[in-house]
Protein backbone atom coordinates (compact mmCIF):
# COMPACT_ATOMS: atom_id res chain seq x y z
CA UNK A 1 0.00 0.00 0.00
CA UNK A 2 1.33 3.44 -0.98
CA UNK A 3 1.66 5.93 1.83
CA UNK A 4 0.41 9.48 1.31
CA UNK A 5 3.13 12.12 1.17
CA UNK A 6 0.76 15.07 1.70
CA UNK A 7 1.66 17.49 4.47
CA UNK A 8 -0.58 17.38 7.56
CA UNK A 9 -1.57 21.02 6.95
CA UNK A 10 -2.46 20.45 3.29
CA UNK A 11 -5.95 21.74 2.51
CA UNK A 12 -8.41 19.03 1.54
CA UNK A 13 -11.28 19.57 -0.89
CA UNK A 14 -14.03 17.34 -2.09
CA UNK A 15 -13.55 18.71 -5.61
CA UNK A 16 -10.39 20.21 -7.10
CA UNK A 17 -10.82 21.83 -10.52
CA UNK A 18 -7.64 22.38 -12.51
CA UNK A 19 -8.23 25.20 -14.97
CA UNK A 20 -10.20 28.43 -14.64
CA UNK A 21 -11.95 28.74 -18.00
CA UNK A 22 -15.71 28.58 -18.60
CA UNK A 23 -15.85 24.78 -18.18
CA UNK A 24 -13.87 24.65 -14.95
CA UNK A 25 -15.62 27.61 -13.38
CA UNK A 26 -19.07 26.24 -14.25
CA UNK A 27 -18.13 22.91 -12.68
CA UNK A 28 -17.06 24.73 -9.53
CA UNK A 29 -20.25 26.80 -9.50
CA UNK A 30 -22.36 23.65 -9.49
CA UNK A 31 -20.35 21.69 -6.95
CA UNK A 32 -20.09 24.64 -4.53
CA UNK A 33 -23.82 25.38 -4.77
CA UNK A 34 -24.57 21.70 -4.27
CA UNK A 35 -22.68 21.74 -0.99
CA UNK A 36 -19.21 20.39 -1.81
CA UNK A 37 -15.95 21.96 -0.70
CA UNK A 38 -14.47 23.08 -4.00
CA UNK A 39 -11.30 24.77 -5.21
CA UNK A 40 -10.32 26.06 -8.64
CA UNK A 41 -6.61 26.12 -9.45
CA UNK A 42 -6.01 28.60 -12.26
CA UNK A 43 -2.67 29.60 -13.74
CA UNK A 44 -4.34 32.46 -15.67
CA UNK A 45 -4.54 33.15 -19.36
CA UNK A 46 -6.22 30.65 -21.62
CA UNK A 47 -8.26 30.99 -24.78
CA UNK A 48 -11.27 32.63 -23.11
CA UNK A 49 -9.08 35.36 -21.61
CA UNK A 50 -7.95 36.34 -25.11
CA UNK A 51 -11.46 37.12 -26.31
CA UNK A 52 -11.94 40.79 -27.17
CA UNK A 53 -15.74 40.48 -27.46
CA UNK A 54 -17.90 37.61 -26.23
CA UNK A 55 -19.99 36.00 -28.98
CA UNK A 56 -22.67 33.30 -28.90
CA UNK A 57 -23.20 33.35 -25.12
CA UNK A 58 -26.87 34.06 -24.61
CA UNK A 59 -27.51 36.77 -22.03
CA UNK A 60 -23.95 38.12 -22.27
CA UNK A 61 -23.56 41.25 -24.44
CA UNK A 62 -20.76 41.33 -26.99
CA UNK A 63 -19.27 44.35 -25.23
CA UNK A 64 -18.07 41.97 -22.50
CA UNK A 65 -14.47 40.85 -22.97
CA UNK A 66 -13.21 37.39 -22.09
CA UNK A 67 -11.41 38.72 -19.03
CA UNK A 68 -14.55 40.50 -17.80
CA UNK A 69 -16.56 37.33 -18.34
CA UNK A 70 -14.06 35.26 -16.32
CA UNK A 71 -13.73 37.85 -13.53
CA UNK A 72 -17.50 37.81 -13.01
CA UNK A 73 -17.49 34.01 -12.97
CA UNK A 74 -14.74 33.92 -10.32
CA UNK A 75 -16.70 36.34 -8.14
CA UNK A 76 -19.74 34.09 -8.48
CA UNK A 77 -18.02 30.90 -7.39
CA UNK A 78 -16.38 32.69 -4.47
CA UNK A 79 -19.76 34.02 -3.37
CA UNK A 80 -20.86 30.40 -2.94
CA UNK A 81 -17.81 29.43 -0.91
CA UNK A 82 -15.52 27.95 -3.56
CA UNK A 83 -11.81 28.70 -3.23
CA UNK A 84 -10.00 30.30 -6.16
CA UNK A 85 -6.26 29.66 -6.13
CA UNK A 86 -4.07 31.40 -8.71
CA UNK A 87 -1.58 28.57 -8.91
CA UNK A 88 -0.23 26.28 -11.61
CA UNK A 89 -0.74 22.60 -10.82
CA UNK A 90 2.56 20.87 -11.55
CA UNK A 91 1.52 17.30 -10.72
CA UNK A 92 -1.39 15.16 -9.58
CA UNK A 93 -0.98 11.74 -7.99
CA UNK A 94 -3.56 9.33 -6.62
CA UNK A 95 -2.80 7.48 -3.41
CA UNK A 96 -5.20 5.44 -1.30
CA UNK A 97 -8.16 6.81 -3.24
CA UNK A 98 -7.19 10.46 -2.67
CA UNK A 99 -5.73 12.81 -5.25
CA UNK A 100 -2.66 14.80 -4.21
CA UNK A 101 -1.97 18.02 -6.09
CA UNK A 102 1.33 19.88 -6.10
CA UNK A 103 1.30 23.47 -7.28
CA UNK A 104 3.68 26.35 -7.78
CA UNK A 105 2.51 27.73 -4.43
CA UNK A 106 1.73 24.73 -2.25
CA UNK A 107 -0.30 21.55 -2.31
CA UNK A 108 -3.79 20.17 -1.73
CA UNK A 109 -5.69 16.91 -1.65
CA UNK A 110 -9.08 16.10 -3.11
CA UNK A 111 -11.62 13.31 -3.38
CA UNK A 112 -12.31 14.20 -7.03
CA UNK A 113 -10.27 16.07 -9.64
CA UNK A 114 -11.64 17.83 -12.70
CA UNK A 115 -9.24 18.65 -15.52
CA UNK A 116 -10.26 21.76 -17.43
CA UNK A 117 -6.87 22.63 -18.88
CA UNK A 118 -7.98 23.12 -22.49
CA UNK A 119 -5.56 23.59 -25.36
CA UNK A 120 -3.46 26.18 -27.12
CA UNK A 121 -4.01 27.14 -30.75
CA UNK A 122 -1.08 26.58 -33.08
CA UNK A 123 0.08 30.02 -34.19
CA UNK A 124 1.67 30.88 -37.53
CA UNK A 125 4.94 32.78 -37.65
CA UNK A 126 4.80 36.61 -37.60
CA UNK A 127 4.04 39.04 -39.08
CA UNK A 128 0.46 38.65 -37.91
CA UNK A 129 -2.61 40.79 -37.28
CA UNK A 130 -3.61 41.38 -33.67
CA UNK A 131 -5.47 38.50 -32.07
CA UNK A 132 -9.15 39.38 -32.03
CA UNK A 133 -8.58 42.35 -34.33
CA UNK A 134 -8.14 40.50 -37.59
CA UNK A 135 -6.63 37.21 -36.42
CA UNK A 136 -9.21 34.68 -35.22
CA UNK A 137 -9.36 30.99 -34.39
CA UNK A 138 -13.04 30.14 -33.98
CA UNK A 139 -15.10 29.99 -37.16
CA UNK A 140 -18.41 29.48 -35.34
CA UNK A 141 -17.72 32.42 -33.03
CA UNK A 142 -16.45 34.96 -35.53
CA UNK A 143 -17.60 34.16 -39.07
CA UNK A 144 -20.54 36.52 -38.51
CA UNK A 145 -18.09 39.43 -38.31
CA UNK A 146 -17.08 38.90 -41.92
CA UNK A 147 -20.35 38.72 -43.83
CA UNK A 148 -19.69 40.29 -47.26
CA UNK A 149 -16.11 41.15 -46.20
CA UNK A 150 -12.74 40.08 -47.71
CA UNK A 151 -11.35 37.22 -45.60
CA UNK A 152 -8.19 35.11 -45.44
CA UNK A 153 -7.57 31.65 -44.03
CA UNK A 154 -3.98 30.74 -43.08
CA UNK A 155 -2.86 27.14 -43.31
CA UNK A 156 -1.87 24.42 -45.71
CA UNK A 157 -3.76 21.26 -44.72
CA UNK A 158 -7.25 19.80 -45.15
CA UNK A 159 -8.62 21.77 -42.20
CA UNK A 160 -7.47 25.10 -43.61
CA UNK A 161 -8.85 24.31 -47.06
CA UNK A 162 -12.17 23.22 -45.57
CA UNK A 163 -12.49 26.38 -43.49
CA UNK A 164 -11.75 28.50 -46.56
CA UNK A 165 -14.61 26.80 -48.39
CA UNK A 166 -16.86 27.13 -45.36
CA UNK A 167 -16.31 30.89 -45.33
CA UNK A 168 -18.03 31.05 -48.73
CA UNK A 169 -21.24 30.69 -46.77
CA UNK A 170 -20.84 34.26 -45.52
CA UNK A 171 -18.68 36.02 -48.15
CA UNK A 172 -17.65 35.64 -51.78
CA UNK A 173 -14.12 36.99 -51.20
CA UNK A 174 -11.95 34.29 -49.59
CA UNK A 175 -8.18 33.77 -49.92
CA UNK A 176 -6.29 30.73 -48.64
CA UNK A 177 -2.78 31.75 -47.57
CA UNK A 178 -0.32 28.86 -47.53
CA UNK A 179 2.53 31.29 -46.73
CA UNK A 180 5.26 29.68 -48.79
CA UNK A 181 4.54 26.15 -47.57
CA UNK A 182 3.73 23.36 -49.99
CA UNK A 183 0.07 22.38 -49.43
CA UNK A 184 -0.42 18.92 -47.94
CA UNK A 185 -4.18 18.58 -48.24
CA UNK A 186 -5.61 15.40 -49.77
CA UNK A 187 -6.33 14.80 -53.44
CA UNK A 188 -10.05 14.89 -52.67
CA UNK A 189 -9.72 18.24 -50.90
CA UNK A 190 -7.71 19.54 -53.85
CA UNK A 191 -10.56 18.69 -56.21
CA UNK A 192 -13.09 20.33 -53.90
CA UNK A 193 -10.95 23.43 -53.52
CA UNK A 194 -10.41 23.82 -57.26
CA UNK A 195 -14.17 23.81 -57.74
CA UNK A 196 -14.86 26.54 -55.17
CA UNK A 197 -14.06 30.23 -55.73
CA UNK A 198 -11.18 30.36 -53.25
CA UNK A 199 -7.94 32.06 -54.29
CA UNK A 200 -4.87 30.14 -53.06
CA UNK A 201 -2.05 32.61 -52.34
CA UNK A 202 1.39 30.97 -52.18
CA UNK A 203 3.60 33.95 -51.23
CA UNK A 204 4.39 34.51 -47.56
CA UNK A 205 3.13 37.49 -45.59
CA UNK A 206 5.73 40.25 -45.24
CA UNK A 207 3.76 42.95 -43.45
CA UNK A 208 0.49 43.94 -41.76
CA UNK A 209 -1.52 47.13 -42.21
CA UNK A 210 -3.88 48.08 -39.39
CA UNK A 211 -6.43 50.87 -39.06
CA UNK A 212 -6.47 53.47 -36.29
CA UNK A 213 -8.76 51.21 -34.24
CA UNK A 214 -6.24 48.35 -34.43
CA UNK A 215 -8.30 46.24 -36.82
CA UNK A 216 -6.61 44.64 -39.79
CA UNK A 217 -6.96 46.47 -43.12
CA UNK A 218 -4.52 44.63 -45.40
CA UNK A 219 -1.66 42.14 -45.60
CA UNK A 220 1.53 42.67 -47.56
CA UNK A 221 3.21 39.78 -49.40
CA UNK A 222 6.75 38.86 -50.44
CA UNK A 223 6.01 39.54 -54.11
CA UNK A 224 5.11 43.16 -53.29
CA UNK A 225 1.36 42.76 -53.57
CA UNK A 226 -1.06 44.10 -50.97
CA UNK A 227 -4.40 42.42 -50.36
CA UNK A 228 -7.19 44.00 -48.34
CA UNK A 229 -8.80 41.90 -45.61
CA UNK A 230 -11.16 42.64 -42.73
CA UNK A 231 -9.89 39.57 -40.91
CA UNK A 232 -9.41 35.85 -41.09
CA UNK A 233 -8.60 32.57 -39.41
CA UNK A 234 -5.38 30.70 -38.61
CA UNK A 235 -5.60 26.92 -38.93
CA UNK A 236 -2.42 25.37 -37.52
CA UNK A 237 -3.82 22.74 -35.21
CA UNK A 238 -4.10 22.52 -31.44
CA UNK A 239 -1.79 21.54 -28.61
CA UNK A 240 -3.84 19.89 -25.85
CA UNK A 241 -2.74 20.45 -22.27
CA UNK A 242 -3.05 16.76 -21.40
CA UNK A 243 0.10 16.22 -19.31
CA UNK A 244 -1.82 15.68 -16.05
CA UNK A 245 -4.31 13.37 -17.73
CA UNK A 246 -1.45 11.35 -19.21
CA UNK A 247 0.38 11.12 -15.88
CA UNK A 248 -2.75 9.71 -14.23
CA UNK A 249 -3.23 7.12 -16.98
CA UNK A 250 -6.42 8.57 -18.50
CA UNK A 251 -7.38 7.29 -21.93
CA UNK A 252 -6.71 9.78 -24.74
CA UNK A 253 -7.86 10.02 -28.33
CA UNK A 254 -5.35 10.07 -31.18
CA UNK A 255 -5.35 13.88 -31.25
CA UNK A 256 -4.64 14.25 -27.52
CA UNK A 257 -8.11 14.96 -26.15
CA UNK A 258 -9.27 13.07 -23.06
CA UNK A 259 -11.87 10.37 -23.58
CA UNK A 260 -14.92 11.05 -21.39
CA UNK A 261 -18.41 9.72 -20.88
CA UNK A 262 -21.51 11.84 -21.20
CA UNK A 263 -20.95 13.51 -17.84
CA UNK A 264 -17.21 14.08 -17.90
CA UNK A 265 -16.00 10.86 -16.31
CA UNK A 266 -12.62 9.69 -17.61
CA UNK A 267 -11.24 6.16 -17.61
CA UNK A 268 -9.67 6.90 -14.18
CA UNK A 269 -11.96 6.56 -11.18
CA UNK A 270 -12.61 9.95 -9.59
CA UNK A 271 -11.04 11.89 -12.45
CA UNK A 272 -13.21 14.10 -14.68
CA UNK A 273 -12.41 16.22 -17.73
CA UNK A 274 -14.44 19.05 -19.24
CA UNK A 275 -14.30 21.74 -21.90
CA UNK A 276 -11.77 22.06 -24.68
CA UNK A 277 -9.64 19.22 -23.28
CA UNK A 278 -12.36 16.80 -24.40
CA UNK A 279 -13.64 15.95 -27.92
CA UNK A 280 -16.26 18.19 -29.50
CA UNK A 281 -16.92 21.82 -30.36
CA UNK A 282 -14.67 24.41 -28.72
CA UNK A 283 -17.34 26.90 -27.65
CA UNK A 284 -18.01 28.71 -24.38
CA UNK A 285 -21.65 27.52 -24.13
CA UNK A 286 -20.56 23.94 -24.89
CA UNK A 287 -17.83 24.17 -22.23
CA UNK A 288 -20.33 25.54 -19.73
CA UNK A 289 -22.65 22.63 -20.52
CA UNK A 290 -19.79 20.20 -19.88
CA UNK A 291 -19.17 21.88 -16.54
CA UNK A 292 -22.81 21.76 -15.51
CA UNK A 293 -23.17 18.07 -16.36
CA UNK A 294 -19.92 17.18 -14.62
CA UNK A 295 -20.92 19.23 -11.57
CA UNK A 296 -24.17 17.29 -11.23
CA UNK A 297 -22.39 13.97 -11.75
CA UNK A 298 -19.80 14.89 -9.11
CA UNK A 299 -22.60 15.72 -6.69
CA UNK A 300 -24.21 12.34 -7.28
CA UNK A 301 -20.91 10.62 -6.54
CA UNK A 302 -20.23 12.65 -3.39
CA UNK A 303 -23.55 13.43 -1.73
CA UNK A 304 -24.22 11.87 1.64
CA UNK A 305 -27.95 11.20 1.37
CA UNK A 306 -29.97 9.19 0.64
CA UNK A 307 -28.06 6.32 2.21
CA UNK A 308 -28.16 3.04 0.32
CA UNK A 309 -29.90 0.00 1.75
CA UNK A 310 -26.48 -1.60 2.26
CA UNK A 311 -25.27 1.43 4.24
CA UNK A 312 -28.43 1.48 6.37
CA UNK A 313 -28.02 -2.23 7.11
CA UNK A 314 -24.40 -1.70 8.14
CA UNK A 315 -24.77 1.64 9.95
CA UNK A 316 -28.41 1.86 10.99
CA UNK A 317 -30.86 4.69 10.44
CA UNK A 318 -29.65 8.23 9.78
CA UNK A 319 -29.43 10.33 12.93
CA UNK A 320 -31.23 13.67 12.51
CA UNK A 321 -28.15 15.34 13.99
CA UNK A 322 -26.15 14.25 10.91
CA UNK A 323 -28.24 16.45 8.64
CA UNK A 324 -27.63 18.64 6.79
CA UNK A 325 -24.56 17.01 5.25
CA UNK A 326 -23.18 20.29 3.93
CA UNK A 327 -20.05 21.48 5.76
CA UNK A 328 -20.33 24.17 8.42
CA UNK A 329 -18.38 26.66 6.31
CA UNK A 330 -20.52 26.20 3.21
CA UNK A 331 -23.67 26.17 5.32
CA UNK A 332 -22.70 29.53 6.81
CA UNK A 333 -21.85 30.87 3.36
CA UNK A 334 -25.22 29.75 2.02
CA UNK A 335 -27.07 31.46 4.86
CA UNK A 336 -25.12 34.67 4.29
CA UNK A 337 -25.70 34.49 0.55
CA UNK A 338 -29.44 33.92 0.99
CA UNK A 339 -29.84 36.76 3.47
CA UNK A 340 -28.07 39.08 1.02
CA UNK A 341 -30.59 38.28 -1.69
CA UNK A 342 -28.30 36.07 -3.80
CA UNK A 343 -27.14 36.83 -7.31
From TrEMBL:
<keyword id="KW-0560">Oxidoreductase</keyword>
<dbReference type="InterPro" id="IPR050097">
    <property type="entry name" value="Ferredoxin-NADP_redctase_2"/>
</dbReference>
<dbReference type="GO" id="GO:0016491">
    <property type="term" value="F:oxidoreductase activity"/>
</dbReference>
<feature type="domain" description="FAD/NAD(P)-binding">
    <location>
        <begin position="13"/>
        <end position="291"/>
    </location>
</feature>
<keyword id="KW-0285">Flavoprotein</keyword>
<dbReference type="InterPro" id="IPR023753">
    <property type="entry name" value="FAD/NAD-binding_dom"/>
</dbReference>
<dbReference type="InterPro" id="IPR036188">
    <property type="entry name" value="FAD/NAD-bd_sf"/>
</dbReference>
<dbReference type="Pfam" id="PF07992">
    <property type="entry name" value="Pyr_redox_2"/>
</dbReference>
<protein>
    <submittedName>
        <fullName>Thioredoxin reductase (NADPH)</fullName>
    </submittedName>
</protein>
